[in-house]
Write a structure and sequence with these properties.
The structure is a homodimer. Chain A is an alpha+beta fold. The first copy, chain A, has 3 helices and 10 strands; from the N terminus they run βββββββαβββαα. The two termini of chain A are 32 Å apart.
């Protein structure tokens, strides 16, 4: 398929302190008509399914402002410029949970909302995780780190009790041969 | 967990023609300090895994402007005010692909990027799909509808050849007992 989009001009309407930007582009789309396209540029991210020797998953309980509720999520972190996804995964996992592992496996990567957002997410499993003390470097996150049996988490994913897509997809990829 | 966020004030910096809005809120977060929070308010959406009697999946090839590439995706559509997710799924599936089914099953729902976006995604499988003529009501999308064997799509998901998270999670949920 040939690219059916043509950008005529663009303006940045927001630059956030976490590196995200909002653009409004004037485009000619597949219909041939001019329209506006709204794009959020965001860092790519990593998601970590960390498993201890006894098959427990390191999971976080946090309160997400945009959805105004408490939610269970696997650790996630933004990939900094020049970082490889695996480096980010190791760094973020240790910062957020204190966990370390010598056995990392890449499970997959994908765009998260390609209708308006540039970000790609990279999913890893870390096995034989040894827990330590979290640095909690991001003081503006309130995170409670907990351990949950993988089988219990799997059941929660399949029963629709996990409400966050990154956590779901990581568990499902691992379950199907990660 | 008690809500650790307090909104002091907010402003809307963008309202798009598809109903999405961008807010910049001034908040007090878990650290007790003031900061800015960037929120994208977006319609919730539905994702449809449509299967024909001979186990082929109705899939779309499209060019996504924000990521500037061609990509394979399951049909997706925004939930309009007052619509139930299942109604949207039936409507969008028929509009985009011409497909109809009398056998719909809900596979799960989840937030897609709860760090900045409000949207929840609802996943359905439609079985025994009968294909018709697409209305292609949204003239500003260039979509090529194709059929792919479910087993082939499954393989592509597990081999990381599918680059879009909604498609991955729908296939994986179905595969694990949908």
């Amino acid at each position: 398929m040939k690219n059916p989009w043509r950008k005529l001009k663009g303006k940045t309407i927001y630059s956030g302190f976490l590196g995200h930007k909002v653009y409004i582009d004037e485009v000619v789309g597949p219909s041939g008509k001019k329209s506006e396209y709204f794009v959020v540029e965001l860092k790519d991210n990593v998601v970590i399914l960390g498993l201890t020797k006894d098959n427990k998953v390191v999971i976080e309980k946090t309160w997400r402002y945009p959805i105004n509720q408490e939610i269970w999520e696997l650790p996630v972190g933004g990939i900094e410029a020049g970082e490889e996804p695996l480096e980010t995964a190791k760094r973020e996992f240790e910062e957020e949970t204190g966990g370390r592992s010598n056995d990392w496996v890449f499970l997959g990567s994908h765009f998260e909302n390609d209708g308006f957002c540039t970000a790609k997410s990279y999913v890893f499993v870390a096995k034989d995780v040894v827990l330590g003390k979290a640095e909690n470097s991001d003081e503006n996150e309130k995170i409670e780190v907990e351990l949950i049996d993988f089988d219990k988490l799997k059941e929660m994913v399949l029963n629709n009790e996990i409400e966050e897509v990154r956590t779901k997809v990581a568990v499902l990829l691992y379950l199907n041969g990660g």
